[in-house]
Amino acid sequence: MLILGVTRWARADSSTAASTGTLVLPDIVIEAPSVLQTKMDSFDQSRDNFLLPKIGATSYSMDQTAIESLPQGTDTPIDKLVLQAPGVSYDSAVSNPDFHVRNEYANVQTRINGILLPEGVSGLGPVLQTDFIGNFDLLTGALPAQYGLRTAGVLDLTTKSEFAPGGSVSLYGGSFGTLSPSFDYGGSHGDTQYFVTGSYMQNNEGLENSTSSVNPIHDKTEQEKFFGYVSTLLGDESRLTYMTGTSVSQFQIPNNPDQTPLGDFGGTTLDSTDLNENERDAFYFNVLALQTKGEKYDSQLSVFSRYTTVHFIPDIFGDLVFNDVASDVTRQSLLNGLQFDESYRLNDLHTLRGGFAATAEHTQIDNISTVLPLDDSGNPQPTPVTINDANSKLGWNLGAYLQDEWKLTRTLTLNAGVRFDQLYQYVDANQVSPRVALVDKPFEDTTLHIGYARYFTPPMQAQAATSDVALFANTTQQPVVAGQDPVQPERSHYFDAGVDQKLLPGWTAGADAYYKIATDALDDGQFGQAIVLTQFNYAKEYSEGLEFKTRYENDGFAAYGNFSVSQTEAKDVTSNQYLFDDPVEFAYIANNYHYTDDAQIFTASAGTSYRWNKNLVSVDSVYGSGLRSGFANLDHVPPYEIVNVGLAHDFDIGLKNKPLTVRLDIVNIFDTTYLLRSGDGIGEFAPQYGQRRGFFGSVSQKF
User: What is the average pLDDT value for the chain, to the nearest integer?
Assistant: First the structure.
């Protein structure tokens, strides 16, 4: 019989069967999707297939099952999750974010359910959790016209869509004083679905260790995160969704021992392990979106607001002793915006799409520097003075696009479009950007794509803020290199081609090649002891690379591997020249192509997992040939490979017949000592080492 979408088949025991001669099947419960879930799924499919398709882009996907199968599962930080995608290289948390897509700086945007989530102001660590993600896509290459602003990669996140009433509580912890309780809960009521998740985390290695030792010095962190999602139907053709999120973090800045005082202030006996620098970051966002769908027309209108702040708190006395400057830096940003996307299926051959976005951002930058004055001979005097270099700006980013998906033949599709972007910031600039891609499916298991995109990438307003360098004349912070031209938007031509092939049932592979040439190429770095990033431009830059990926899934077994080779070089700094403190190096990079500091030649990732009964075993690894270091980035740090393993088991001893899941994870199981940053490359201040071996465990109870 069928009751409330559940079909039940029953079989009597063997004695009953023997006595009656009747064979009855065993109990099988098949849950049919609820009417509400079916309707919600149709809106998701409409958004992905008609409103915001990824035609021509290079895509790498991980669903909820793949994420849960990683060592650490949903406790994997989202920035470490990205490292399992091809062409993504690992960096220190100071780089913000601590990964690079195809060797670019922080030129990555995040979208949740197709809605842009504006970046922050160079805080530390990720602001989103992993456990709300239902599907993760990394988009690269020649992106369709709807994608503007940050274009090296798009983290396209889809929230969980299965909302059976219930949730879980978890406790995760282990090495380095790690303790992280978390919860999630979701359900539905009437025509409404909802989902909330929150976590607290503390440990003794919030940022990368400045030494190769197991335990860093002065590196504690506390982080709280929350995400909420509510979606309700307004009839059969409209859906209203609200999302909100919070991330509040405190970091101690790790100390680098055995540093030598400069001798200009406070004597020469201070121990650098006694420094007490800290940073406090906060990120809040709210999004309200109205989606409509019809037989031929789809749209989504969203309004969003984001507030973020970063406050670096120096050790004034100690920083003066070792650096002749102590910078108390606060960056605040309030951003409000709206985004509108629509599609219209003109006929069987043409689908038209268009949209616009507008954001208004107000930034407030306060840099309170304690410095030493210079005498007439240029010698520092041990009488500190305080200088407040403040800057406030209201900036605008405006963009619009129009494109046509044209089915040329049964297998060949042309997606052509154009964007227009207008920037009103520290500079006024605009650009018309054509986009075109061809996607061919000559055989059922083969997909080919080739595309071209013209990109216009504005600076991050808080990182492009101008400095009044005249305030620092005749002090230990006066520039060595003259010049402070304003930061310009990056303009680039991007070419991309690739193939995806199904080799056997469950086995897929792909390859992609790209080439980019840019003018006014954006880059950033940490110039000074304050862990905040500042942007500048290179006059010219090129980047080229190859990527390979493969994945195999069969029953409970899954395995994947990715490999990329890439080269990125640039020359001639054309903005914020005063940031550079080595005139010889500055003169060299003005006349010679050199590797950018984020460039890594070889990058690889791989993993495997196996589920049987209620058990899970998984392994993943990351390889890097080393980021740049030394004079003009002519050298690189040593290559490294780290391997992580995880074990999990579901016990039937939980509440209300819900499983109790126990995990054991070992991060960096071979205890590899690896250097991410040497501290002597362009825009680097101190060395950073990757995490040593750590043992972690979790207990999670579903309810």
Answer: 92
